[in-house]
Amino acid sequence: MRYTEIKSCYLGPEISPEQFVPEHFFLFLAKGLITGYDGSKKYELKSGESCIVKKNHLARYHKQKYNGDFEKVVVIFDKAFLKTFQDKHQIKISTSEEEDAFILLKKDSMITNFISSLSAYYNDEGKIDEKFSNIKREELLLILLQKQPELYPIFFDFGHPEKINLEEFMNRNYKFNVSIERFAYLTGRSISAFKRDFKDIFHDTPSRWLVKKRLEEAYFLIERKGKKPTDIYIDLGFEDLSHFSFAFKKKYGLVPSLLKNQVLSRG
Q: What is the 8-class DSSP label of residue 128?
């Protein structure tokens, strides 16, 4: 099935583009390729496929165009919308034990037909008219819950993250560029408790440990795996190449590009 009339669009409130996922959202890929990462697993989404990205997780994805095109449909299922939906349909609150950030959905004609139906709701600006946003969001959620009932405890778990093993979590997620406040929240701690527990475990402050850990991984990827500095700094949690190069030189005495040249000269 082709989606020639589908434009990239969002239904629901805007969410921050940071690597912390504050609200559940549905992602359908009409054109292109998406590779995702949640700290422990890698995922791939191809044209015509869809997934749920879970709230209260760290995740990032990279997009690739296909024949020069990339089109996706994102539907945000925020807490306020889900609470209203829950009250309307009398759904009991439950607890989810699903740990993965990305939940790949089974291909289904009802989902593809829903995506195709959106083209009728685009306004003159090429966006979905806000008057229909909640109606279409409710329609999609009903489809998803009917087809995959195991999504009920995922969407209607309104609890906060529980206290978890901090050492295990940080060693798995240090590459994500999020604030200390986010790390504290996701490990079920206040800021003060997070810093105290972190000091007890790692004998360092979170900020210093994160930079050190990321730089050690960078050195390994360049020196042992032959990676280019420009290809790895973002995935290691650095905001820009200059900051990465400065921190790398401060720790190792040479800029990462020079280390790369040394590796190339060794053959």
A: B
- Tell me whether the CATH fold assigned to 9-155 matches the one assigned to 166-265: no
What 161-167 contacts at long range (C-beta under 8 Å, 24+ apart), as own/partner pairs, is 161/56, 161/185, 161/186, 161/187, 161/188, 162/188, 163/187, 163/188, 163/189, 164/188, 166/194, 166/197, 166/198, 166/201, 167/201, 167/202
Q: What CATH code would you report for 9-155? A: 2.60.120
Average pLDDT, the chain: 92
Q: What is the pTM assigned to this prediction?
A: 0.89
Q: 71, 22 in Cβ contact below 8 A?
A: no
Rounded-to-integer distance, Cα 267 and Cα 265, Å: 5
How do residues 75-109 score in pLDDT, each as one tens digit?
999 999 999 999 999 998 777 777 889 999 999 99
Q: Among 200, 208, 166, which Cα is nearest to 185's?
A: 166
What is the chain's Cα-based Rg? 21
Give the relative orientation of helices 133-147 and 109-117 as an angle to the nearest 10 degrees.
170
Which band of pLDDT confidence, cut at 50, 70 and 90, is reported for residue 135? very high
Q: Which fold has domain 166-265?
A: Arc Repressor Mutant, subunit A (1.10.10)
- Note the pLDDT of residue 4: 47
Phi-psi region for residue 249, left (φ > 0), alpha (ψ -120 to 50) or beta? alpha
Higher pLDDT, 79 or 15: 79
Position 260 confidence tier, pLDDT thresholds 50, 70, 90: confident
* Domain spans, the chain: 9-155, 166-265
